[in-house]
Design brief:
Largest sheet: 4 strands, antiparallel
Structural class: alpha+beta
CATH superfamily of the largest domain: Reverse transcriptase/Diguanylate cyclase domain
Number of strands: 6
Number of helices: 9
Order of helices and strands: HHHHHHEHEEHEEEH
Number of domains: 2
Strand order of the largest sheet: 2-3-1-6
Helix content: 55-70%
CATH topology of the largest domain: Alpha-Beta Plaits
Strand content: 5-15%
CATH class of the largest domain: Alpha Beta
Length: 284
């Protein structure tokens, strides 16, 4: 819950304003009576208990109310020893102590509801993320779909003997590009990459964005020589990128890794490892 208020300070501000507003409404309804310093101190303590309950939960609110009651009792005893009379009547003392406990309970319950709602939202988001397989920026399948497609294609080749190739390529210094040119230019770059891949690969070839700066292509029914030719052509097209404002063209650093299916390949993950290793050692 603390993380929730940290990320959304407006929510905490709203809760504070709500508490103050309700308190002022009650004071106005009572005819705007004069408030003593002791009453102001107690009122502030009640608000602090309410905030503790909202932010940290019912248990924290109850601990805060116990602390307030202890301090309140200490104040009463000191007043009795110094002046010979308590600062408030017995009725007011009982009302304030009761209000401390009620404030902890009333503020702690919304905390519990909000926490349960946030937890439910988190579960729904996780479920949604597992269902979504499309990368929004490029329209390609994402990393989860990539592994499923690789396994499916590998089993097909194992069964039929028809070869296929995997190509992984990375836009080096992608985060630096985003820092220099911003989100708009980054999305334009991703759109340009997606367009080039669509125009220069077949419809049957699987296209994936497996990381922010990394793409993968499953080239179906393709031998090693043809895969290298396709990637060389794509590399040449990706080297020069024209910014969305048309005012500047920049050179991109592209790294590639290619792996090919063979009868000796034991698992599709072996192909992924081989292509990733080539990618890491690629020299443009």
């Amino acid at each position: 819950m603390r993380e929730f208020y940290t990320k959304s300070s407006a929510q905490l501000g709203f809760q504070i304003v709500l508490l103050l507003g309700l308190s002022l409404l009650g004071w106005y309804s009572a005819g705007c009576p004069e408030i003593s310093r002791v009453s102001l101190l107690l009122f502030g303590s009640a608000l602090a208990i309410g905030l503790a309950g909202l932010v940290f939960g019912l248990l924290a609110g109850l601990w805060a109310s116990l602390a307030a009651i202890f301090l309140f009792g200490t104040l009463i005893l000191c007043s009795v020893f110094i002046t010979g009379a308590p600062p408030l009547s017995a009725r007011d003392i009982v009302l304030w102590m009761t209000s401390f406990v009620l404030m902890a309970v009333v503020s702690g319950m919304p905390h519990k509801w909000i926490v349960s709602i946030l937890e439910e939202n988190r579960r729904l988001k996780e479920k949604f993320d597992t269902l979504v397989t499309i990368d929004e920026a490029t329209g390609f399948d994402n990393r989860k779909r990539f592994f499923l497609a690789m396994e499916e294609e590998f089993k097909r080749s194992k069964r039929t003997g028809i070869p296929f190739a995997l190509a992984i390529f990375q836009i080096r210094y992608f985060n630096k590009f985003r820092e220099l040119y911003g989100e708009t230019e980054m999305n334009h770059l991703l759109g340009s990459v997606a367009a080039i891949l669509r125009d220069h690969t077949r419809l049957t070839d699987g296209k994936f964005r497996i990381a922010d700066d990394t793409f993968a292509i499953i080239l179906t029914n393709t031998i090693a020589e043809n895969a290298a030719y396709v990637m060389a052509k794509i590399e040449d097209l990706l080297k020069v990128h024209v910014l969305a404002n048309k005012k500047k063209a920049i050179m991109l650093t592209i790294a590639f890794g290619i792996s090919n299916y063979s009868d000796k390949t034991e698992d599709y993950t072996e192909m992924i490892r081989h292509a990733s290793l080539e990618l890491d050692h690629y020299v443009q």
